Amino acid sequence: MISHSILLIINSFAKILHGCGFGNDVLQHVLNPLELKDLKDAIVSLDKENNVTKYLQLDDTDLHKTRVLFDALIAEFPRFAEYLGNNATIIHTPLFEKAVSLKCKEVMNVI
Question: In the chain, which residues have pLDDT < 50?
Answer without folding.
Answer: 1
